[in-house]
């Protein structure tokens, strides 16, 4: 997606060789008009796949998933990371290890919001190690639902997540793939 | 907002005398078409206020803030709750106590995403004790920006947050106010 490459070149901040900050439109501040362009792009790719539900993970996946869902007219479900008094007892649970935060955590989805007849599109902002998407895939399998594909805004191609998911048979659509980050410079695949 | 009352009556689940779960359209599963009706309602109320930015708090405020921002064509900034390697060093910080989770936590906003010329609308899903909104108000004051008002989807009128904010001079617009919850029954104000 050319417009996204340009936006990342203009606004992305590279820290070291692996951290890309796109806080000013995707991860902290949200440019909702631009998120609509992203949502439309996911719609163009997956529109014929009879998606019934979009699944993401809190917190930074929520905005792009909600905006994208407007094109599909389907509900979003976001997996929760924290224990909450308010969550149902009957939940699907999976373990995710976050390298960014250097810890493992549980993700949870109430069972009643996924059914075996669902055809599910995963949406997330970043793909690096692929652990969050693998956790969501695990939950979809627990529900007996169909994982139709995964739409990712930024894939870090130099980390193993993309290869892992493609090997697992996931229809992975990344809007941009970063091949390398070095000395503040971004090289797209 | 009559449609919201009906939706809460149809889909809300009351636990005890103080917990209302609206997980099937607002807090876990997101009905984005209905969130658009909510966003339009906030737009109708605040459209003449020259809003330049919407401020919310992760995670469950993000979806309603992002959908609402489409009507105002302004960016959303969401305050972060967790420490992250990726957040800027220069942040505004405030303390919030959550009764739901029974603990205090810090909320943070990168300084560069709020300026003293900003006219800010706070958007959040629930108002109970009012501590999250007071924390956001504190951050807006640290930035020297103007708090124009707060749009809340569900105010628990039997808890002190609404009175606290109105006394503090906040233009508070709650789409519904719940007067009482008892034995699974909801009474609107």
Could you explain the architecture of this structure?
2 copies of one chain form a homodimer. Chain A has 189 residues and is of the alpha/beta class. Chain A has one domain (2-188): Rossmann fold (3-Layer(aba) Sandwich). Chain A is built from 6 helices and 11 strands. Chain A has helices spanning 2-11, 23-27, 32-46, 61-72, 131-142, 161-167, and strands at residues 13-15, 19-21, 29-30, 53-57, 76-79, 91-98, 103-110, 119-127, 146-156, 172-182, 185-188. In chain A, strands 5-4-8-9-10-11 form a 6-stranded mixed beta sheet, with helices on both faces. A two-stranded antiparallel ribbon of chain A has the order 1-2. In chain A, helix 5 (131-142) links the parallel strand 8 (119-127) and strand 9. In chain A, helix 3 (32-46) packs across helix 4 (61-72). The radius of gyration of chain A is 16 Å and the shape is globular. The interface between A and B is large, with 41 and 41 residues.
């Amino acid at each position: 997606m050319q417009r996204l490459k340009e936006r990342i070149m203009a606004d992305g901040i590279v820290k070291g060789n692996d951290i890309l900050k796109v806080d000013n439109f995707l991860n902290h501040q949200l440019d909702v008009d631009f998120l609509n362009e992203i949502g439309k792009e996911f719609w163009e790719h997956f529109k014929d796949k009879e998606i019934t539900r979009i699944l993401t993970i809190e917190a930074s996946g929520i905005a792009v998933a909600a905006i994208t869902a407007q094109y599909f007219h389907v509900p979003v479900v976001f997996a929760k990371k924290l224990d909450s008094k308010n969550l149902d007892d009957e939940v699907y649970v999976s373990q995710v290890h976050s390298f960014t935060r250097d810890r493992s955590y549980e993700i949870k989805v109430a069972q009643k919001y996924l059914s075996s007849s669902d055809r599910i599109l995963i949406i997330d902002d970043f793909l690096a190690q692929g652990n969050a998407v693998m956790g969501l895939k695990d939950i979809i399998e627990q529900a007996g639902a169909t994982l139709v594909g995964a739409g990712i805004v930024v894939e870090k191609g130099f980390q193993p997540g993309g290869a892992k998911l493609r090997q697992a048979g996931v229809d992975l659509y990344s809007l941009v793939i970063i091949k390398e980050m070095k000395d503040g410079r971004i090289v797209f695949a």
